[in-house]
Amino acid sequence: MDNLELKKYPIGKFQLPEKISDQDLDRHIKTLKDFPGKLKNLVAYWNDDQLDTQYREGGWKVRQLVNHLSDSHMNSFLRFKLALTEDNPTVKCYDEAKWAELQDSFSIDIKPALQILKGLHKRWVFELKSLTNREFTSTFHHPEQNRDISLKESLAFYAWHCDHHLAQIENLRQEHNW
Q1: What digits encode the pLDDT tens for the residues 103-131?
Q2: Are 74 and 116 in contact (CB under 8 A)?
Q3: What is the rounded distance in angstroms from the CA atom of residue 116 to the CA atom of residue 114?
Q4: What is the rounded CA–CA span in Å between residue 31 and residue 173?
Q5: What is the secondary structure of 63-106 as a DSSP string?
Q6: What is the pTM of this model?
Q7: Burial class of residue 2 in the structure, from the number of CB atoms within 10 Å of its CB (0-12 exposed, 13-18 middle, 19+ buried)
Q8: Which end of the chain has fewer CB atoms < 10 Å from its terminal CB, N or C?
Q9: DSSP-derived secondary structure letter, 9
Q10: Mind listing the domains of the chain with CATH numbers?
Q11: CA 117, CA 92: separation in Å to the nearest integer?
Q12: Longest dimension (CA), the chain
């Protein structure tokens, strides 16, 4: 893996496990529970110059990453709720790169996104802890991927997503000795 690829995927690309055990689910839920605090501890006191630094050449600025996390996790939470209340609903896709170029991602302070993540993850984790094994097999249809995705799989992906973006930001911090 070259340096650019390592900066892009510091923990590697998401690999869907063949089986997701109850212990895996618990670990993924804990990742979601701990994520908002970890992210806040990492970037809450960064200045504008730090927040406006790209985590890699050609990549988003840290400010965009934080706002992307808020956008992405809101979408995922809604997909979970749809899958739990409808029979394999087709979810709406969105262009995350275009969303990252909107002013609320590109230039706003990160505090609102951190607040959203804190409240959203509290609700998300509360709901996840109440699910039965059968409910975790609920699915939604993702039209861009043209396949059904179970909540177990989506949870595994979003736990990876948390760790993936934290690692990108942590690597930037280490690279600049911040």
Answers
A1: 999 899 999 999 999 999 999 999 999 99
A2: yes
A3: 5
A4: 21
A5: HHHHHHHHHHHHHHHHHHHHHHHSSSPBPPP--HHHHHHSHHHH
A6: 0.96
A7: exposed
A8: N
A9: -
A10: 36-176 (1.20.120.450)
A11: 21
A12: 49
